Amino acid sequence: MADQRPIGYWLKLVDNLIEKQFATTLDEHGVTRRQWQLLNVLARSHATIEQLDEAIAPFLDGAAESAAEHLSELIESAWVDATPDGYELTDRGRTAFATLAEVVTKQRAAVAQDIDEREYTATLSVLERMARNLGFTG
Question: Helix crossing, 49-56 with 33-44: angle to 10°?
Fold first, then answer.
């Protein structure tokens, strides 16, 4: 095990590769990864800007970036409506989300190709425990 690269190397590499692949795939459909994440949150329920910021916080560039920056184009495209209670998907947004969900499902399957369910579940469990060991409480 001493000759193996450290976990931080693999985490950064895999994260960068996932980010690049998803960005390319989603760009082909006219959305960014952050916009996809917002659509994914809103597909479950309407949300306030604070709830959206919290939901996608791990993917934002700290305080320098917020969900609001990524919502404007979704609103202009009539995929998301701003309401007095927050934001919600429109019918057009739900249709777009369904199409994108199929694309993302295929992409996720490609990432996990040749990894059986037991290995995948164990990997997620170990990563979650490491995050908690480092102070994650979510």
Answer: 120
DSSP string, 56-76: HGGGS-GGG--HHHHHHHHHH
Instruction: Report the C-alpha gap between 22 and 46 in whole angstroms.
Output: 24
Half-sphere exposure of 64 (CA within 13 A, CB side): 1
Residue 78 Ramachandran class (φ > 0 left, ψ -120 to 50 alpha, else beta): left
Contact 49, 87 (CB under 8 A): yes
Q: Copy the structure tokens of residue 43.
A: 């597909």
Identify the structural domains of the chain with CATH numbers, from first to last: 7-133 (1.10.10.10)
Give 79: exposed, middle or buried? Use CB within 10 Å, 0-12, 13-18, 19+: buried
Q: Is the pTM of this model over 0.85?
A: no
* Distance (Å, whole) CA 134 – CA 17: 23
Residues 84-95: tens digit of each pLDDT? 999 999 999 999
